[in-house]
Amino acid sequence: MSSNVSTAQRTLGTSGLPTSALGLGCMGMSDLYGPADEAESIATIHAALDAGVTLLDTGDFYGMGHNELLIHRALRGRDRASVQISVKYGALRGPDNAVLGLDTSPAATKSALAYTLRRLGTDYVDVYRPARLDPKVPIEETVGAVADLVKAGYVRHIGLSEVGADTLRRAAAVHPICDLQIEYSLLSRSIESAVLPAARELGIGITAYGVLSRGLLSGHWEQGRTLAATDFRGHSPRFQGDNLAHNLALVEALRAVATAKGASVAQVAIAWVGSRGQDIVPLVGARRRDRLAEALGALDVDLTEADLAAIEAAVPAGSAAGERYAAAQMAHLDSER
After folding, report:
1. Residue 84 — φ and ψ, nearest 5°?
2. Is 33 part of the annotated catalytic residue set?
3. Which secondary-structure segment (H or E) carries 313?
4. What Pfam families does this protein map onto (predicted)?
5. Which H helix or E strand runs over 294?
6. Which of 62, 128, 184, 209 is catalytic?
7. What is the pLDDT of residues 197-249, one digit of tens each?
8. This model's pTM is above 0.85
9. According to the model, what pLDDT value does residue 45 have?
10. DSSP 149
11. 119 near 68, Cβ under 8 Å?
12. How buried is 318 (Cβ within 10 angstroms: 0-12 exposed, 13-18 middle, 19+ buried)?
């Protein structure tokens, strides 16, 4: 399978952000999945760029700025204009790594971007988005603040993350929204009922994260795997006890489909997300070059109608056991979801 994606392009939203058909989510290089090798992380970003991946996704709270600094180092000597950098902001962190809440007020929005630009070593970001819906701030005020940054040239496009259909409509009434970043995978399909139709109605693209369900759909996860204390999957319901056993059984059913296709489980899972529409760009969270190479192979997997039916039979909608997040984390998500 080839791994060059330079000719595989998609456009996010009617506001028109051309980008690669796969994006690289960089969070795990700095946070939440346990220790990462910094040199390997930078080598993975370089390999992605060399293969034609142009979309890099980060957040200012990933490692409390570490991820943005990492991307800055990785992009030295590269053509900034050839890369789209997508940044989430608004999540508040304590020195003990605790999540303290959200602040997407206009002043906080503009201040956060100032620090992001300095850490990234750039004078603009391609997509700027609140990480979650701040219950204290009307979405109109938040989008209005980012729109000010667009007018000033510091931001090219406005995105949203993990919000519902009503919020999308309210936000789009203030300013065009490029894309909605939201979890979408074979194990997480709740957006299909209302969120995805609303996004399409409004001309909003989808950047889909969690396409491998935090590694569950990678085909490499094993029961009894030891996790680092800083790996949030140690507290995620889908990775616990009977839930994990059930979910891994789904993976084995998917593996049979993948094997018949001459592909890996991860490649089929990624290809399935990509098959849901030309307005969807899957984000892969590879932290190593070998995992990146495997993920890029998904672009060569052509799923037929028979393949899609077999995938649906192996992992039916709603078949995952356990919630995406622990109860305390769910409290930070938009209630519309």
Report:
1. -105, 120
2. no
3. helix 305-314
4. Aldo_ket_red
5. helix 289-296
6. 62
7. 999 999 999 999 999 887 788 766 666 666 565 555 656 677 766 777 787 88
8. yes
9. 97
10. H
11. yes
12. exposed
